[in-house]
Amino acid sequence: MTTPKLWLVIPAAGSGQRMGSDRPKQYLLLRGRLILDRAIASVLDNADLAGCVVAISADDPHWQETEASRDPRVHHCIGGQLRADSVIAGLQWLEGQAGPDDWVLVHDAARPCLHPGDLARLIRELTDHKVGGLLAAPVTDTLKKSVTGSDEVLETVDRRELWRALTPQMFRYGILKSALQDAAAENRSVTDESSAVEQAGFFPCIVEGRPDNIKVTVPADLALADFVLSRF
Ligand code: CTP
Ligand code: MG
User: Fold this and answer.
1) Less crowded by CB within 10 Å, the N or C end of the chain?
2) Percentage of the chain with pLDDT > 70?
């Protein structure tokens, strides 16, 4: 049996509604470098990849501004309406190159603070796994569940078995592609790769990651990401 290859898919076709800036947030500068370039480099420079594809939106005028667009290791394809559609587009781009047992890392374009140690641990811990898994951080706040449609607290939820899902998520190519395609065909909502794989009946493996691997979502996250990177 040949050693499975490792591929990278970066969904970068979002418009950044919650950030509300004049360009999609992945094209904002963070400590002098585009967020998208930081996210790509955080994986590309720290893993032995067979290839990398970035899913961008069809009318994206900013891709040419990236360092990544000039990097011969990086390819791009056109993403879709939802994040999952963009990931599917990336997986389809890999069709014919990636084998069913190859690994695919999926990493958000808006997550520029991935620590190389977390990436290395994710890859190491999943090497012999049949399905794959994800970086996740334990929940630290006390969690409340409210009464449906009300602001009253119904109960306190036990947080010991709860995790915040991060990226990269790393799955076998064949399993991930059919799980995402089936979810799309049946109109099931999936917000990350793991949820599609869970819905397909598998049990992804949690690899504990640093809580500061944040997704830049609202303007305040820019200052936070700047701070995190200053401490690397
Ligand atoms: N994404 C994508 N294709 C979409 C939607 C999102 O590739 N149709 C990507 C984003 O570019 C981002 C990642 O998925 O890298 C995580 O999504 P999110 O943080 O929700 O980004 P946006 O959808 O751009 O932001 P918002 O939801 O605030 O509009
Ligand atoms: Mg979104």
Assistant:
1) N
2) 100
